[in-house]
Structure formats: C-alpha cells, structure tokens
Design a protein that fits this description.
Blueprint (H helix, E strand, L loop, with lengths): L21 E2 L4 E5 L5 E5 L2 H4 L17 H12 L8 E7 L6 E9 L2 E8 L8 H12 L5 H16 L3 E7 L5 E8 L10 E2 L6 H9 L2 E4 L7 E4 L21 H9 L4 E9 L2 E10 L7 H43 L10 H8 L7 E6 L2 E6 L4 H11 L8 E3 L18 E6 L7 E6 L27 H12 L8 H29 L1
Antiparallel strand pairs: 1-11, 2-3, 2-6, 3-11, 4-5, 5-6, 7-8, 7-13, 8-9, 10-12, 12-13, 14-15, 14-18, 16-17, 17-18
Helix pairs in contact: 3-4, 3-7, 4-7, 7-8, 7-11
Bound molecules: biliverdine IX alpha.
The site of biliverdine IX alpha has 28 residues, from strand 8, strand 10, helix 6, strand 12 and strand 13.
Length: 509
C-alpha cells in the first residue's frame, strides 16, 4: 500500500519504507531493465535532463552522450559486490557541459541510475578530506574517547548543527553517547529513546544501505512512474540514495524543529551497533562526494571502534583475573567473606558496575549499598534455592522472576545472583537500581510548539517518556562480559569460602 496515511504510530513497523514509490527532489531517478530500457522514472527528470528527456520504454542510450553512457555501463559491469552503490562524480551526461554525480546499483533485474547536479566547489577529494579527520582519531583509544572525537570530526566535516553518536542497547533502545553541537542548542547527550523510534524494518534497511540523507523535511517528495511495471512489481528503493523518507519520521523531525537529517550506520561484527545521527536546523543538500567522504569516515571509525571494544573486553577479562588474585590474597587471613563485603564491593566496583551487594553465607546476611534488607532477602531464598547449584542467575527485573522482589523495587530491581557454595545455599548478589526516571531538560518545556497529525508523541521528550515506560521496574542489563566475569568470580569465591570454612573446621577441632 503506497498510501502514507495507512500507517500511524500503531503499525509503523509494517510500513514498507523501501517501497514508498517516491524520491526526494534534490535529484532524479531512472530505473532500467538489463538491456537499458527505461522501466521507471521520477516525474522530475525533465528538471535535470532538459536536453532530451527519457520516457518509460525508451532506450536510455538514445538520450545520453555516447561516452557517458559507456562510462555508466562499464562502471556497473565492474560492480561485483552486492549492495554497493557505484559512484561517478562530475559526469557530463548529455554532452552539454552540465555535470552530474551519479549513483548506480542493481536490484534484481533492474538497475537504478540516480542523478544529482555536480557541485564543483563543494567536491571533496576523498584522501585529502579523510587524512586530517582520521589523524584526529589517532589518540583516541577508548570507546567513549573515540565516539566523542568522531562526533566532533563528523561535525567539522559536514558542517551540520548537531552530530550525535546514537548507540543501541541489547533491548534495541538507544542512547546518545556522544554529541557535538552548536553552543546555542539544547543537549541530547545521555538521552535514551525506546526501540520504536527506529522501527525494525528501518534497522534492517540501514544494515544494507549505510547512508541516509533527508535534505529538506519540507520538500514534497517526487513520484516515480509507473508505480508498477507490467509484471506488477513496485520499484525496490532499498539501496537508493534519493529514497523518500517515511512520513512518520518526517513528522518526528519537523516536531523537533529539524530541517535536514542525515544518518550513517555504524556496523560492528555484522550488527547495527548504532548510528551517526546528524541534524541541521534548515534544509541542507550535501553533495554526493561529501556524503561519500562521511560514509567512508564512518566505516573507518567503525573499524577503530571494533578494536576498542575488543580491547575493552580483554582488559575486563584481565581485571577479572586480577580480581581473583586480589580476593585470594585479601581474603586469605581466615576472615569471613561476609565481613569482607566492602573489599568485594570495591574490587568489583567498575568491573561489574552495581549499586549494592549482599552476601548470604551460612545463614547470615550482610549488605552494602542499595539492597533489600535481611527480611526481604529471606523471602527470596526459597525461590533462589530452586536453581541449579552452579548456575548464575541474572536479570534486569528480579520481580518478574520472583514477585516478592517487588517489595524492594525502590532500592534494587536488577540482580546478578552468584551461588557460592554447596550446602546450605550461599549467595553473593550484585544489585542494580531502576534505570533513571528523570532527565533535566534544557530549554523551556512549556514553549508552544506545533505538532503534526500524530501529536506530540513524535518528540524527544515524549520519546524519553516512552522509553521510561518501557524500562519501569528494570535496571540496565547485565552484559555477556559481566556475566562471564561473574562466572570466574563464582569459582574464586567458592575456593575462598571452602578454604575459610575448612579453616574454621580446623580451629574447631
Ligand atoms: C527513522 N528514527 C529514524 C532515524 C533516526 C530516528 C535517527 C533514521 C533516519 C534519519 O536519518 O533521520 C530516531 N533521531 C532518532 C532519535 C533521535 C534522533 C531517537 O535524532 C534522538 C536524538 N519514529 C518514532 C516513532 C515511529 C517512528 C514513534 O519516533 C513509529 C512508530 C518511525 N523512524 C520511524 C521510521 C523511520 C525512522 C518509519 C524510517 C525512516 C526512513 O528511513 O524512511
């Protein structure tokens, strides 16, 4: 269904955003069959190729200069990888001196040719443009340094008002983890948004097509004719550079006061890790060459980020080993583990971030930080004891597993439960608080704003509220790395406890 009004907030994950049958007006589109006969064209083609305008059913080569047609054919023939857009910058399509930037790709039995006017002054030389920005990334080694530096460099490169690094969490919600913006803009840093703000089909599309430009949210889209070929197929615009954007998302951007948006996928280990999300508060057509530089920068950044993430993982593992050694030596004096909770709390501190820790050992309960009290904890024990002896239980909402945990949700909601002995069941538990329910917004929330037909939901504030709803009663999730460190910890603690109890037995003898 091509009717934009058929999709609203309730069903926008089903909107076929790759088949809206429209493009943005800053360029024109021609789709050809494998023998270069025009199967579809955008209705604005005449604004760009005024010399001789190809109609549906025409041979494209009859409308182009021989040399430019040859160039396109050979470029497309040389394209071997699936899902790549081949590019030609500054091609004199009709031999009349007017230059165009061309994007070419094949999708099934159709090749799509997209043309934009070539902007000579704004054209960037890839290597010249990339060298200084990559140099700036040199010194940045940690994930957060890299993201901050990349946001700054991307802003410098593109001249957009705001550049954000938007990272997806395991639950598909997202967080602005780095931001570079004009000083007069309110900050979006650390804000979180629900997964629905970027629907599933959009994420899938963004894995294939890494770059999206929305040059002017107020520019009406241009239709593609015919809507369907004689065989009934609609044109698949998945890999198009000019693809018109979902009206729901346009409304979101308008509600935010954004005039142009640009996003570039950050793909790591074959997964969509996040996006560069860039806003400009007026229309902004970025020439194809500049977009290509930004895309390449993002790909190089992704590689560096991947290395930084791997490094962080091995550093964490190394610290897990150090933790083992320290615990073994610190707890060697025969002191009871429960009394050494402060040591454990501190040593674990930034290895597995947590808000409280409890020890339930030999029927005695100790705790530090945000935790249930003894009585509350004891109500959990029967349920905890039903798990297998060596199994770590981790959850961002203990109450969803053990309803009694709802009693202390003001103190802790997430739990990483480490069984540390055989009989009776002993536990070390790390706790996490509920995710933040407040945010300090800059700017005046009462400021009158006009909203589109879907109301104020499509605004960052309402998005944040929607995110809050989705995480009510939940903590941040325990990552795979954290759980695997906890596995190591379980073994260490088991050793410590067995030793301590053995020593105690010795003394008693
Ligand atoms: C797409 N939503 C997007 C995109 C972003 C966001 C970055 C990619 C397109 C682009 O480059 O602009 C979301 N943008 C954000 C967020 C921030 C931001 C969270 O700047 C935070 C600062 N959007 C909604 C809701 C729906 C929705 C409720 O908020 C539907 C129920 C839909 N978002 C939606 C759709 C797309 C989208 C359909 C795909 C647009 C397209 O590529 O055609």
């Amino acid at each position: 269904d091509n009717n934009a009004n058929a999709y609203d907030l309730t069903n926008c994950d089903r909107e076929p955003i790759h088949k809206l049958g429209k493009i943005q007006p800053f360029g024109a589109l021609i789709a050809v069959t494998s023998d270069w006969i025009v199967a579809h064209r955008s209705t604005n083609l005449g604004e760009f190729l005024s010399n001789s305008v190809p109609n549906v059913g025409d041979r494209l080569q009859n409308h182009l200069s021989a040399s430019s047609f040859k160039k396109m054919v050979s470029t497309l023939a040389g394209s071997h990888t699936e899902d790549t857009q081949e590019r030609i910058f500054g091609l004199d399509l009709q031999g009349d001196g007017r230059l165009f930037d061309i994007a070419l790709h094949t999708q099934g039995d159709i090749s799509i040719v997209e043309i934009e006017p070539h902007d000579k002054d704004a054209t960037m030389d890839l290597t010249l443009a990339l060298r200084p920005v990559m140099a700036r990334l040199e010194g940045a080694d940690t994930v957060s340094d890299l993201c901050n530096q990349a946001a700054r460099q991307m802003k410098q490169l593109l001249g957009f008002d705001r550049v954000m690094v938007y990272q997806f969490h395991p639950d598909q919600s997202g967080e602005v983890v780095a931001e570079a913006r004009e000083p007069d803009l309110e900050s979006f840093l650390s804000l979180r948004y629900p997964k629905t703000d970027i629907p599933q089909q959009a994420r899938q599309l963004y894995m294939r097509n890494l770059f999206r430009i929305i040059a002017d949210v107020n520019a009406g889209p241009v239709a593609i004719e015919p809507e369907r070929r004689i065989t009934g197929e609609e044109l698949d615009l998945s890999l198009s550079t000019l693809r018109a954007v979902s009206p729901i998302h346009i409304e979101y951007l308008k509600n935010m006061g954004v005039g142009a948006s640009l996003s570039i996928s950050i793909v790591i280990d074959g997964k969509l890790w996040g996006l560069f999300a860039c806003h400009h508060y007026g229309p902004r057509i970025l020439p194809y060459s500049q977009r290509t530089v930004a895309e390449l920068f993002s790909q190089l950044f992704s590689l560096k980020l991947q290395i930084a993430i791997t490094d962080a993982g091995s550093r964490l593992k190394e610290r897990g080993r150090q933790l083992h050694d320290r615990l073994m030596s610190r707890l060697a004096g025969g002191t009871e583990l429960a009394e050494e909770l402060a040591t454990l709390d501190e040593l674990l501190g930034d290895i597995i971030p947590h808000d409280g820790v409890s020890a339930f050992i030999e029927d005695s309960y100790r705790s530090r930080g945000n935790t249930p009290d003894e009585e509350q904890f004891r109500t959990l024990v029967p349920a905890l004891n039903t798990a297998s002896i060596s199994q770590i239980i981790h959850t961002d909402s203990l109450a969803s597993l053990v309803p009694a945990a709802a009693e202390f949700s003001d103190k802790a909601v997430g739990a990483l439960i480490i069984p540390v002995s055989r009989r009776p069941r002993d536990y070390i538990v790390l706790w996490r608080r509920e995710l933040p329910q407040t945010v300090t917004w800059a700017g005046n929330p009462e400021k009158p704003v006009e909203h589109g037909p879907n109301g104020e939901r499509l605004t960052p504030r309402k998005s944040f509220e929607a995110w809050q709803q989705s995480v009510r009663g939940r903590s941040s999730v325990w990552t795979d790395e954290e759980v695997s460190i906890a596995e190591g910890l379980r073994v260490t603690l088991l050793e410590v406890i067995i030793r301590v109890t053995d020593e105690a037995m010795e003394e008693r003898r």
